[in-house]
Specification:
heterodimer, A: Methylamine Dehydrogenase, Chain H, four-stranded antiparallel β-sheet, B: mainly beta, five-stranded antiparallel β-sheet, 30 strands, 43% strand
Chain lengths: 381, 420
């Protein structure tokens, strides 16, 4: 005869019930919360339009995000208010990859992905006092298409120099956009050939995120997992003798999914094969820090004020998990799956996280990227 | 007779020990099968199909040939999926409703058993995923349409003969998926709900629209003509929270538990999870349909109690225009039940709104029906349920049981009731 408590735990799928043991698998419930993308249940960025692909924190601390789906939406969260305020849909856009940045004057720039390629500018103005905007177009200025015929795959900003950097899709052209002059320049490309694969695989290996450092360097990965560096002073895009770390033989499939810079100027990256690495931008030396999760894809990394790096990993068909890395002792901590359980009021688990940002107060923001998505807030110790 | 008097009489019926005898058939050689949820279908040719679950092992597809009065084991689901040598999570269940195609085949999807707190389930090393399948009663063969939902199971499902599609909601991601049989196309429409509150029944109307519940009693509609999901403004009547029932933190009470389609009136009847609230849902009325609460189908006396059992999936519409509901006497979920209690058979007459508790379900030998979680109506009006029956130890014979419910050994059985 079976042990009843074992059955209670293991039969849970039948009832779709949540067991006490499940809480062991997820992020500590006193350190995480979630926000609907608007005022539930009606004034929300709708299902099929809510997948968050990009987050960025403005100089005043506001968190901006862009979604993908049938329409793309822009939203903002002011930490002092705590709720997500939809700012309207982005005209002509259905996809925004990691392509949202905020300039030093607070203007928000959004790069349109597949089928768009437009660069839009949104200038905030008393948004806190305005009503929720879901079915109205966001009042944006169209700055044109930086790379003709291509979508924007990733963007980063050098706030000090007022320059936006970007990468195009599907051909991986690296461009800069000078905010003051409105001039876009293509500096080269990071991929020439498709990834080796089956006949139906027709994609180039292009890094999914860019990093613009305070020192004026821009990092991105490209074909065969190679790392590229754009130097602001020389205005040159160089292929480095470095590749995103992975097991030998898989370099062609591996790319950098996420970047972060710590307060000392050290650069960290996470790869699609799930490895974390440290890159010293001065010496251009790379150190593989291993694989924090037995999963693919490190989809987001941020450096927190407490000195730790927080990252999220997991492929589209896996369960997203949060981890931390302490550079001072090299220790990883597995923080669990991204889940919020505030039953009977609300409960929601994120399986796919595609964007990550760190707020001015150290709150880690995680953007869910599914048909029905929410913004998660993680509060580090 | 007014309804309150009926309820009083029904309560009196319990007090006087009212019982109802149901016929039953066990599944020979499959006594270890430990559960059945929703997977029961009475086909037009008199065969009654059931999916028997076996946590940690291979589930089975079986059918009862009502004309020959014989149970047939179609086979082990893992084997039927061609995965016996895979050494990954077994195909432990059919966890959703079957359907009959215009070609006479019986369509369904498979599901996993254990989910291991997602440490293995929904990972690349765990359960391979649900298969879409069809059983052909003419050849006695199962056709495997292949892996439909990698790493996930079909938690909830329904088949629509009009569009020849098998629909499902996956566990754990709660995605709305379907398999289009004609074009052999598997489609994933994305996430509907959170994993612990995935609704357990998809309702299909006579136009082929598919309905399910999500969120706090919300309803979605999938239209196969537009291939689009719409979230409706109507709400399923659900008892307000505020008093913990002891299961609040563990179980969802925000969705409909099951619905049945009434071809005559062209509307759904359903019950909610929280308090077995019976409701009608007319999807054609108004902009987003209309819902009316009709009372509660729990065993009389439980209506306002905190220990009202979680609603079961055993709801079917009889040919006599009565809803038949297998009500649990205690929180029932096979080995995970709160204790042993005898299940009741409750009816609700649609034309008069009269509810009647037919009493505790007992077998021919006096054995108790400890709970049910699937019901359907045969072409001749016979009511079928699948559930757990008490197994009485017999001296000198090995106990043929799947486990125990509150210390009472049980096994699965097909229950047969012939309405008068």
């Amino acid at each position: 005869m079976r042990n009843l408590s074992l059955i209670l735990v293991l039969c849970a799928a039948a009832w779709a019930q949540r067991t006490l043991e499940y809480d062991h698998s997820v992020v500590s419930q006193v350190r995480i919360d979630a926000r609907d993308l608007g005022y539930a249940p009606v004034d929300l960025i709708p299902s099929e339009e809510s997948a968050i692909g990009a987050l960025s924190v403005g100089p005043e601390g506001a968190i901006y995000g862009a979604t993908s789906g049938k329409r793309s939406h822009l939203f903002v969260l002011y930490p002092e208010h705590g709720y997500v305020q939809p700012l309207g849909f982005l005209p002509g856009m259905t996809t925004v990859h990691k392509a949202i940045v905020v300039s030093k004057n607070g203007d928000v720039y959004i790069g349109g992905g597949n089928g768009s390629g437009h660069l839009l500018r949104y200038t905030p103005h008393n948004d806190e006092e305005k009503p929720i905007r879901v079915d109205v177009a966001c009042d944006v200025a169209d700055l044109g298409i930086p790379v003709p015929g291509e979508g924007v795959y990733a963007m980063a900003i050098d706030r000090a120099r007022n320059v936006i950097y970007g990468l195009s899709y599907p051909n991986g052209q690296f461009f800069s956009y000078d905010i003051a002059t409105g001039k876009a320049i293509i500096h080269g490309k990071v991929a020439e050939h498709n990834i080796p694969g089956e006949k139906f695989e027709k994609e180039k290996n292009i890094g999914r995120e860019l990093l613009a450092t305070a020192a004026g360097f821009v990092f991105v990965s490209g074909e065969s997992g190679a790392l590229y560096l754009f130097n602001e002073s020389s205005q040159k895009l160089d292929k480095l003798r470095l590749t995103a770390p992975t097991v030998p033989g898989r370099e062609v499939y591996n790319r950098v999914d996420a970047w972060a810079e710590d307060s000392k100027g050290m650069v960290f990256g996470g790869t699609s094969d799930g490895y974390l690495f440290r890159l010293d931008p001065k010496t251009l030396t790379l150190q593989n820090l291993g694989k924090p999760l037995n999963q693919y894809r490190i989809r987001g990394v941020v450096c927190a004020p407490n000195g730790k790096l927080y990252g999220v990993g997991g492929d589209d068909d896996e369960m997203a998990r949060l981890f931390s890395y302490n550079p001072s002792n090299g220790a990883y901590e597995m923080l669990g799956m991204i889940d919020v359980n505030r039953r009977p009021y609300y409960a929601w688990q994120a399986y796919v996280i595609d964007a990550m940002a760190i707020g001015a107060d150290g709150t880690v923001y995680l953007g869910q990227s599914e048909r029905k998505s929410k913004l998660y807030l993680y509060y580090p110790e | 007779m007014n309804r309150s008097l009926c309820v009083l009489l029904a309560v009196a019926g319990i007090a006087s020990g009212r019982t109802i005898q149901v016929d039953h058939r066990v599944f020979p050689g499959l006594e270890r099968m430990d559960g059945n949820w929703a997977a029961l279908f009475a086909a037009s040719d008199g065969k009654v199909y059931a999916g028997l679950a076996y946590h940690g092992g291979d589930g089975h597809l079986v059918y009862y040939d009502s004309k020959a009065d014989r149970i047939h084991d179609v086979g082990n689901l893992t084997e039927l999926c061609g995965e016996s040598n895979l050494k990954r999570g077994p195909q432990s269940k059919i966890h959703a409703k079957f359907g009959e195609g215009k070609d006479g085949r019986i369509y369904f999807g498979t599901h996993a058993g254990f989910w291991w707190d997602y440490a293995r389930f929904a990972t690349k090393e765990g359960y391979p995923g649900a298969h879409w399948m069809a059983f052909d009663p003419r050849t006695n063969q199962v056709q495997d349409f292949g892996l439909g939902v990698p790493n996930e199971g079909v938690n909830t499902g329904a088949y629509d003969p009009q569009f020849n599609r098998i629909y499902g909601l996956t566990h754990p991601r709660g995605h709305f998926v379907y398999y289009d049989v004609r074009t052999a196309r598997a489609v994933d429409k994305g996430r509907i709900n959170n994993w612990e509150s995935i609704c357990r029944t998809l309702g299909i109307d006579d136009e082929g629209n598919v309905y399910g519940s999500f969120g706090a009693g919300q309803i979605f509609k999938y239209d196969p003509r537009t291939d689009a999901i719409q979230e409706l403004s109507v709400r399923v009547p659900i008892r307000e929270k505020g008093i913990s029932l002891g299961r609040d933190y563990f179980k969802s009470e925000t969705a409909w538990r099951t619905v049945v389609w009434d071809r005559k009136m062209r509307l759904f009847y359903g019950i909610d999870e929280s308090a077995t609230i019976l409701f009608s849902f007319n999807p054609r009325a108004g902009k987003d349909g209309e819902i009316h609460a009709l009372g509660q189908l729990c065993i009389p006396g439980f209506e306002k109690r905190r220990d009202i059992p979680y609603a079961t999936l055993s709801l079917t519409l009889g040919h006599d225009r009565k809803l038949y509901y297998g009500a649990a006497g205690k929180e029932f979920d096979y080995g995970g039940s709160a204790g042993a209690a005898t299940a009741h058979l409750i009816t609700y007459e649609l034309d008069s709104g009269r509810k009647e508790d037919l009493g505790e379900m007992l077998l021919e030998d006096g054995g108790r029906v400890l709970g049910t979680n699937a019901a359907d109506t045969g072409p001749d009006g016979t009511i079928y349920l699948v559930g757990a029956i008490e197994v009485k130890p017999a001296a000198g014979k090995a106990l043929e049981a799947a486990g125990d419910i509150g210390g009472v050994p049980y096994r699965l059985a097909l229950l047969i009731y012939h309405p008068r």
